[in-house]
Amino acid sequence: MSKGDHVFNNVVSKLRGAFLQGLSGYLRARAAAPGARGPWAAGATMNAGDWLGTYAPRTRGALDYFTSHPELAEKRNRLQTSTYQGGDVNNAAYSLAAREFESAVGSYFGKLATLRRGAESGNRMLPDVARVRRAFLKMTQAAQDPDARRRLLDEHAEQPAQRARLERDIQAVEEAMSWAWGRCEYLFRMQTIESLTV
Question: What is the pTM of this model?
Answer without folding.
Answer: 0.81
